[in-house]
Amino acid sequence: MKRLFFALMLMGATLCASAQLLYRISGKDLPTPSYVVGTYHLANVAFVDSIPGIRQAMADCQQVYGELIIDEMQSPDTLAMMQQAMLLPEGMTLDKLLTADEMNRLNAYMKSLLGMDMTNPMIAQEMGKWTPSALSTTLSSLSYLKKTSGFDPQNQFDNYFQKEAFKQGKNVGGLETTLFQLNMLFKSQTLERQKELLMCQVDNVAFMDEMADKVIQAFYTQDLNAIKEAMDAKLNNSCDSRPEEEDALIYNRNADWVKKMPALMAKMPTLFAVGAAHLPGEKGVLNLLRQAGYKVEGVTK
Prior knowledge:
six-stranded mixed sheet, disordered N terminus, 13 helices, alpha/beta
């Protein structure tokens, strides 16, 4: 369920002294510091200026690395690959994968969220061919967008840092490939497990809304520990993320990034802009960098 809870919206709050999204990486063999900032792609871009020290960090760094290169996501080849990754096997549709009762529950959820459901032939023709993972990810994003305003798909929060780097003639790179992320999001689980998690979303709306609200508040108060605490909430049933799923979604990727970051930072000061949920915790990026011998400290001004 963790992959469904990154829907955040702007909330006014007073920052506590220990709350940061931006961290300075120094020491070991680095001639100059690098930085890592926690992001969320549906956050309001205007929130960038609420992150202490971000403008100076952007000025000091000579390159920006994200989870992947955002501009590559817009290429025709990538869009075609994404559309293909979201589709069920040829000849299969959701109404064949789900029972009649499960379809009724899904339709009721979609009706409350979108005002239409799979009984609409146009919706069934499009969404009815999607994998359960693709549908659940889309519905969670739409749920967020329904509750907020001002989101501009052409001006997203995590795009911002790469766009600014391009404008300034700085290098832009990605820690992962688009193909890797598509496989992770849409193909790393069996269809049966994807179906189970989709129904968890449909059947636990109140729980998911509460978790999303907590993540929202934690992000905009720049409280990484609270983000982790909110995302670690459990239903204590099969809806909870399995250890191998958490490894694939977060922890294995954290470890892989931290292996790649030293060479990038040694070459030139780098601003890493990655999902905020990857930063906290024992197996988070911040702690892994410290274990690798770097000094990692929150930027407060």
